[in-house]
Design brief:
Blueprint lengths: L2 H11 L28 E2 L3 E7 L8 E3 L5 E5 L4 E6 L9 E6 L8 E4 L2 E5 L4 E5 L9 E6 L16 E2 L3 E6 L15 E6 L6 E5 L8 E2 L6 E5 L25 E6 L3 E2 L5 E2 L3 E2 L9 H7 L5 E3 L5 E6 L19 E5 L12 E7 L6 E9 L12 E6 L5 E5 L4 E7 L1 H6 L6
Parallel strand pairs: 14-18
Antiparallel strand pairs: 1-25, 2-28, 3-4, 4-5, 5-6, 7-8, 8-9, 9-10, 11-12, 12-13, 13-14, 15-16, 16-17, 17-21, 19-20, 22-23, 23-24, 24-25, 26-27, 27-28
Length: 415
């Protein structure tokens, strides 16, 4: 296939990003002054956004336990903050440092009465037995240095099921050929850290793994590679190919599955750098294509599926959203115009269990000034059925729920 045709094929296979004029990202230093409920965001009619945690610098990934306690990971200080909304007003007024001293702490997963968490090279579990929001027991499941550390993608996702834990190790750079290493792979272990097995390969940067409700399916968003058009002449500021390619991927990860990276992007399209690689056609054939794609450079980090047991509660996420996926997009760093910076809903067909559409629910680019007001990182569903999303810049946790009028009429909740 000629390179020009290759580019056209990729463009047709991608759901293009929605560009916006450039703007600078605010510094991470938080403000203690009161802020408007929506913080200058665009919010889809029928929903509203409020601040659940006002000041939590560097907030990244989140988890909620069986008692409604919210946990937030912070990689730079290497700690987890535990928060409780004791009076039920939607604001978490009680907070403690749950555990600390774990540099590059990242993924969280609550299972079996323990909060499991990763650092760049280890997996641990902790629990609070007296309810003071401070872990009094911390156990090394995989000791520091057991996993490959550092690299351009040092984040380690985490999923814990009743008998298995899963973690991913991303590319050390952009499109490195690291097929003979532990990078670009998802591994599984027994709950005690033994029995390491390769689960899937060909990933670039999957920062979170979760089960789809009612199934054993393992899903995750994988970041697309950068500078797709450089081999065709793209340079910084003049990058018509790179701006729109390759797509971000929503993958259904399966045992022994290969997902293309670094050779194949999107819907089985070879990267220019590997176009003449021996066996590239067969490699494309063996690549499992994404179940859904999003615009290039959106950076989908964390996500959650809407739990049917928590949907339809007053002022929560409507029952019609049950089984859908909400994803936090951190936003671009190397497109000529900023894209992403949003909370999006990926709609799943109730019969087939497959995604079929996407709605942007919140944009953190202010409509009038086009200023970037937040960089979303992760989503979790709270005990009241509402959706929480974190932003590391600025350090806040926001709550998304339906407006009173929409909740009473059921309006604005269907695609």
């Amino acid at each position: 296939m000629p390179l020009s045709a290759l580019t056209l094929a990729l463009l047709l296979a991608t759901h293009p990003a929605q560009p916006a004029p450039p703007s600078s990202v605010p510094e991470a230093a938080p403000s203690t002054a009161p802020i408007a409920a929506a913080d200058g965001f665009w919010v889809r009619p029928g929903y509203e956004v409020s601040v659940a945690v006002e000041t939590i610098p560097g907030a990244r990934f989140m988890e909620v336990d069986d008692h409604g306690v919210l946990y937030v990971s912070r990689p730079r200080p290497g700690d987890i903050i535990a928060l409780r909304d004791a009076d039920g007003d939607g604001v978490y007024e009680q907070r403690q440092t749950y555990t600390s001293g774990k540099p590059r702490l990242h993924g969280l997963c609550y299972s079996g009465g323990w909060l499991w968490f990763t650092t760049t090279g280890s997996i641990h579990k902790a629990r609070d037995t007296d309810g003071d929001l401070i872990a009094d027991e911390v156990v090394d499941v995989l000791a520091p240095g057991t996993l490959v550390t550092g690299g351009g993608h040092w984040w380690r996702s985490l999923l814990v099921t009743k008998d298995t834990l899963y973690t991913s190790i991303g590319d050390g750079g952009n499109i490195s050929d690291q097929t003979d290493t532990d990078r670009q792979k998802i591994f599984s272990f027994a709950l005690d850290g033994s029995g390491k097995q390769l689960f899937a390969s060909g990933i670039r940067n999957t920062e979170k793994l979760r089960l789809r409700p009612g199934t054993s399916e393992i899903w995750g968003f994988d970041h697309g590679s950068d500078w797709f058009g450089r081999e065709a002449g793209d340079t910084e500021g003049d990058q018509p190919i790179t701006d729109l390619n390759p797509p971000e991927e929503l993958n259904l990860y399966t045992q022994s599955g290969f997902y293309g990276h670094p050779f194949i992007v999107g819907n089985r399209i070879p990267r220019y750098e590997y176009f003449k690689r021996e066996g590239i056609h067969d490699l494309a054939r063996s690549t499992i294509p994404p179940e859904w794609t999003m615009g290039a450079h959106w950076a989908p980090n964390g996500f959650c599926f809407i739990d049917p047991a928590l949907s339809g509660l007053p002022r929560g996420i409507p029952a019609g959203h049950a089984g859908d996926c909400f994803v936090a997009c951190h936003g671009s760093w190397n497109s000529t115009e900023p894209v992403g910076y949003c909370i999006a809903r990926v709609l799943f067909d109730k019969e087939t269990g497959k995604p079929y559409g996407l709605l942007k629910i919140v944009s953190t680019i202010e409509p009038e000034t086009r200023a970037i007001k937040a960089r979303p990182v992760d989503c979790v569903q709270a005990a009241d059925g509402s959706l929480l999303f974190s932003s590391d810049q600025p350090g806040r946790i926001y709550r998304l729920r339906t407006t009173p009028s929409a909740a009473s009429t059921g309006a604005s909740h269907q695609p």
